[in-house]
Design goal:
alpha/beta, five-stranded parallel beta sheet, 15% strand
Length: 175
C-alpha cells in the first residue's frame, strides 16, 4: 500500500515548497505508464526499483491497485494524484488501447493540473512518435478500423502521442 507524499510540519512545507514530499496535493511522486509486454520485466522494473530505493513514491499498475477495485478508475485516479508521469514509449505502446487511454489522461492532466511528463523512448525513435510513423502508424490504422472505437477518440490519442513526442526526453536504444 502506498504512503501519502505529505509533510506533517508546516515549517518544512514553507521552507521546501518545491520538494516532492512537501506537496500534500500529490499522493504519488511518479506515475509509470508503460506497455507491459515490452518493458515490465526489464527496463520498467529496473526504473521502478531505482525510484523506490530513492524514496520516490511511484504508482505502477501491478503493485498499487487495490483488490476489488475497477482497474480503469484506479489508474486514472492515480494519474490525477501524481506530480510526474514517466511514459515509457515502446514498440507496442500505441497498440495498447489502455496505454493510449492513460496517455490521453496524462496529457490532459499536464494541461489541467500541471503534471510534468518525462518521456522515455524505448526502442522507438522520437520522430516516429511525433509523426506516428512505422509501427505506430500501423497501430493507429488498426484502431481506426476497430468499429468499437470512436474516430474522435483515436484522433485524441494521436494528438496526445504527438504532444508527448514533442517533449524532450531520453532516447534509449540498446541501453
Amino acid at each position: 500500500m502506498a504512503t501519502q507524499a505529505t509533510s506533517s510540519s508546516p515549517s518544512s512545507t514553507s521552507s521546501s515548497s518545491s520538494s516532492l514530499s512537501s506537496c500534500p496535493r500529490w499522493k504519488y511522486h511518479v506515475f509509470l505508464s508503460f506497455c507491459g509486454v515490452d518493458t515490465r520485466m526489464n527496463f520498467t522494473d529496473h526504473l521502478y526499483t531505482a525510484l523506490k530505493q530513492k524514496g520516490i513514491i511511484t504508482f505502477r499498475d501491478d503493485e498499487k491497485l487495490g483488490r476489488g477495485k475497477y482497474i480503469s478508475q484506479e489508474l486514472l485516479k492515480a494519474i490525477e494524484e501524481s506530480k510526474y508521469a514517466i511514459i515509457v514509449l515502446s514498440t507496442n505502446y500505441a497498440s495498447s488501447k489502455w496505454c493510449l487511454i492513460e496517455l490521453a489522461k496524462i496529457v490532459k492532466c499536464e494541461k489541467e493540473t500541471g503534471v510534468t511528463i518525462l518521456p522515455f523512448f524505448y526502442h522507438v525513435d522520437p520522430s516516429d512518435v511525433r509523426n506516428q510513423n512505422g509501427i505506430l502508424a500501423e497501430a493507429f490504422a488498426k484502431h481506426e478500423k476497430d468499429t468499437r472505437i470512436n474516430t474522435k477518440v483515436v484522433q485524441a490519442w494521436k494528438a496526445a502521442l504527438k504532444d508527448v513526442g514533442d517533449i524532450s526526453g531520453w532516447h534509449l536504444r540498446d541501453r
